[in-house]
Amino acid sequence: MRDLSAGPRVLLKRLRELMAEPLEPQERLDRIVRQIANNMVAEVCSAYVLRSDGVLELYATEGLNKDAVHLAQLKMGQGLVGTIAASAQSLNLSDAQAHPAFRYLPETGEEIYHSFLGVPILRAGRSLGVLVVQNKAQRNYREDELEALETTAMVLAEMIATGELKKITRPGLELDLTRPVSIDGDGYSEGIGLGYVVLHEPRIVVTNLLNEDSETEIRRLAESLGSLRISIDDMLSRREISMEGEHRDVLETYRMFAHDQGWVRRMEEAIHNGLTAEAAVEKVQSDTKARMMRLTDPYLRERMHDFDDLANRLLRQLTGFSPHSAAEGFPNDAIVFARAMGAAELLDYPRANLRGLVLEEGAVTSHVVIVARAMGIAVVGQAAGAVALAENGDPVIIDGDDGKVHVRPVADLQKAYEEKVKLRAKRQEQFRALRDVEPVTKDGHRIKLQMNAGLLVDLPQLADSGAEGIGLFRTELQFMISSTMPKGEEQESFYRNVLKQAGGRPVTFRTLDIGGDKVVPYFRSQEEENPALGWRAIRLSLDRPGLLRTQLRALLKAASGAELKMMLPMVTEVSEIRAVRELMQKEIQHISKFGHQLPKKLQFGAMLEVPALLWQLDELMDEVDFVSVGSNDLFQFAMAVDRGNARVSDRFDVLGRPFLRILRDIVRAGERNKTPVTLCGEMASKPLSAMALLGIGFRSISMSPTAIGPVKAMLLGLDVGRLSEVLTAALDDDTPGVSVRELLIRHAEENTIPV
Ligand code: PEP
Ligand code: MG
Predict the structure, then answer these.
(1) Is ligand 1 within 6 A of the CB of residue 476?
(2) I need a labelling partner for 435 at 20 to 30 A (CA). Which of 51, 171, 284, 416 fits?
(3) What is the reported pTM?
(4) Spatial contact of 551 and 535, defined as CB atoms under 8 Å apart
(5) Of all atoms in ligand 1, which is nearest to the CA of residue 513?
(6) Are strands 334-338 and 55-62 parallel, antiparallel or unpaired?
């Protein structure tokens, strides 16, 4: 037998020439398999490509019957070829027939070939096809031959990915890479987005696969690895780690991988086998990914993401890729795909072009989702595998109502969604027409509809939606998107700007609600086992009075001469409110001493989010000017379900008897004490639950700006008096089996109330 140690190099050199020649795709494929067969002294070399219907079709062969090309086929998982594709693992057999998966394909005129070496054609860990060599003699293919064949498979992966094989794909059939895929996730922000995929961390497309000189490539790899390691150390030592969406333990894992000798060795081997440094990174990344995708352990799968991210970083180092070069081709209708993302990163995108956001992780209340919702873009979270299944520029539809993502949708689906979008636009138009209509129910109750906000980008929605004011301004968002603690003057000018843009409409500022899941990068507290029940919101503010006083001062100064409305988050005991009032008094004195004009009126409120307050309602209402129910947190604590944990958060119903009874008690206490009561949790944003709130007596609610129209449309058709009779009976009655939600839906249907 020929000495093959120089073989792979010669083969790759020939392939490089073949790739550069202006050949028709079939001709190129035919020549590639011929080259491989010659070079490896194999009687057969065949390339199978995976179609979108899960069938592996013979696309080229040297040695088998040529008439079988485009006819011979195997299903995924069938025969040796199907097994390789399904497992994304190579098979090296000296006696192929003895393998239990062996299957004879008569149309190929296959003789008895004992030896068989097959490798998957991989891209981003996904099988796109299989490349096989066969010999009559029983032989064991050597390790370097296996490596060479795997490397060659990368060249084929590139041919498939660039769409070159489309031309020789039979009409009516499609390759797997262009297969439409639908991913089921959770709808985090309503709306439909039609557009094109923008990968938040774009995969680098390696086109220069085959090296000229291994030593140069080894040096390039070493240099890039060096810079990568330094950049990770840098990130670890920076204070604003979580601004990048990267938490310390993830970075520690990166560091561990970046120093992993096994990884470096495998990449060096691939370079010695003829690949460029970037192709070597991609090959090892793809192999590792294919291997790890088979793991079921969630912890290890999570590490796969980390490894994947790290390899992408290394690729970016090697290719000198900068996100700016990608921004140039930013589509007008962009749907951003990310594994996870920080709120600030989303704000970096050109807002006018954003149509949607797809996250592999996330929860409804994660910061990035709150910001996306404020921006009015559709969001689907928990979309497993979305990033690997999509390519930059792929057409995509995201349905934030149903939590679906359709990548490369078929024409019918595209049409159906275009209709849906038109219908929505028409409905939006109808809502816009209601903008200046007074929110009065059919039986004459005037309802106050306000909107929630937290950033300056939200402010234009005040006029657009027709909201009467801002019922909840989440001041922590400004802190969350800033890399350093905003100074007093910055806060002051920000609040002044908010008030100015609100143009005289009332704004209720909520003091800092950080801690729990709201992470502020420069304010790292200790790890907590139960952060939702931990050191957060007003607890933290009272323990760090400097922080709170700075904010109070900024608010007082920003509202000088005007009305200032503010409220405190997560109050548990009335004494906490008194403590803040004392600090406020000090600030008022301080400001007056320096001759600043004070606000002409100060309204001081509390959020009702902690159930303990339910047994202090009269005292509470004696202490404050108004109460705002934070139903997101109140529900979480009352029902003992983590609001960010999709597994339990939908388990109980906000429209169930227990929670509605709690809310009714709060309204009654407000009437008894003549204290205004409002509600600013997500419940207010859904017409059906907003209807229930009006039915139990709320006359003021605050919601996301896009909900104002639908909620107003609902209340214009509502007779509150009649609904409240139905609800009173339902809440006082415990008839098992009759859910309040069903009753409400039925009531809306019978009375043609749009919910
Ligand atoms: C709530 O808890 O209902 C609320 C409005 O506050 P946040 O969602 O910001 O916790
Ligand atoms: Mg809350």
Answers:
(1) no
(2) 416
(3) 0.69
(4) no
(5) 9
(6) unpaired
